[in-house]
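Thread: quick sanity check before group meeting

JM: Hey all, I'm pulling together slides for Thursday and realized we never actually wrote out the predicted structure for the chain we discussed last week. Dropping the sequence here so it's in one place. If anyone has concerns about the input, flag it before I start.
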Amino acid sequence: MNAIKYIGMDVHLATISIAVLDSKGKLVMEVTIATQAGALLDLIRGLSGTLHVTFEEGTSAHWLYTVLEPHVGKVVVCDPRQNPRRLGEKKSDRLDARKLAEGLRMGSLKPVYHGNALVPALKELVRSYRTLVSDTTRVMNRLKALYRGRGIGCAGTRVYSPRFRDQWREQLQEPGVRGRADLLYKQLDLLLPLRQEARAAMLAESRKHPAHKILCSIPALGPVRVAVLMALMQTPHRFRGKRQLWTYAGLALVTRTSADYQMVDGQVTRTRKPALVLGLNANHNHTLKGIFKDAAASALAHPGPFKDFYTTRVAQGMKPELARLTLARKIAAITLTLWKKGERFNAEHVKTQAA
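JM (edit): ok, ran it. Output follows.
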């Protein structure tokens, strides 16, 4: 049986500091190499035994994962926010690499999901589309802010339309302000076609995946939301169950309890004191949370099983905002279940009990 070696990497733009520990925690090697695939693979090939590698999530993390994964026994991309740091302790690239290797050996690192090479093209197309949506929204907001800053009301979308553009420009008396508006309009005219092009490419790529038809059968999950959802989740099997998905999507409740047990007649007994609910978990994927919350809002705008589910919760005395959260959790749970089973949506999936 080959001995396991634990490799910690402190990754930077130009160099990677590497520490190698054996199964007993003894430092076997310490080296700094260039941040290049060739140099890294040469080092890996020169080591014997079963290799387990770790490095922190960052800009180069996915690239490093794809380079190393075929050549080592295990790759752990860890969450740097979860790595313990003590105030006043020494810090350097070498020490960071050693701590990562030791954390990997002890199993104390919190992994960040990487893997599933089935949707790399879709991920990049979704990133392009979302970036263009963000850029377009930013330019639109700047245009409206320009008019509103001069007391000119500009509700609606006419302010962006080429048909009414001259009418809006005439209301700007200052030449410099009018010139700035012209530049913003030109920027908007360039971004809108790119946004549509990116959207079409993203939807075309998403249709190639078997999960597309399954997820599109769920009410309120349109093709754009489905494409983004597939790119973010990649595979439903990374989540053991719905509660893990709720945590990842920011839909899980954070609770606090204290003095959970008491002594009754000489026996340790669990108290019946209710847990204090502090709200939803803060560490989550914000885009995924937005998808499920927006899907819940869209479902309430049209008759259907999801709206009936919400109406029933409210009729039973649940607050409307909590009922919307419950609906978002229900949509997330159904999405995960159907994707795992490869089944299309059926109204029977929306059961009467709360999600």
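AS: nice. Strands lie at 4-11, 15-21, 27-34, 50-56, 74-78, 253-256, 261-264, 267-270, 276-280. The mean pLDDT is 92.
JM: adding both to the slides.
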